[in-house]
Amino acid sequence: MSNSTDNLVAAYRQDLNYWLERKTEYQSALNVLASKGGNNESAWKLKGKLEAVDEMITHLQRKSGI
């Protein structure tokens, strides 16, 4: 691979790591809400964020060749 391609893949992986961390945070928060019996607007918003994060992760995995 060329240096610019290597740099691009490295950037995708850095972004991927960021989004994987967000997914972990959102999932943890959702688990806390669920343990408290919460099925409210906050849980609904977190589920939406998790779906969006999953889509971003899939996109970045494709782009980086992972």
Task: Walk me through the structure.
By secondary structure, this protein is mostly helical. The protein has one domain. The chain contains two helices and no strands. Helix 1 runs antiparallel to helix 2 (41-64). The protein is elongated, with a radius of gyration of 15 Å. The protein starts with a helix and ends with a helix.
List the SSEs and their pairings.
Elements: H1 3-35, H2 41-64
Summarize the structure.
With 66 residues, the chain is mostly helical.
- How many helices? The count is 2
Number of strands: 0
Instruction: Estimate the mean pLDDT confidence.
Output: 89
What is the distance, rounded to the nearest whole angstrom, between the alpha carbons of the first and last residues?
Answer: 15 Å
Largest sheet properties: none
How much helicity do the residues have?
over 70%
SS content category: mainly alpha
CA-based gyration radius:
15 Å
Percent strand equals: under 5%
**What shape does the CA trace take?**
elongated
What is the H/E string? HH
The count of domains is 1
Stretches where pLDDT is under 50 for at least 5 consecutive residues are: none
Task: Output the keywords.
single chain; 0% strand; mainly alpha; 86% helix; 66 residues; elongated
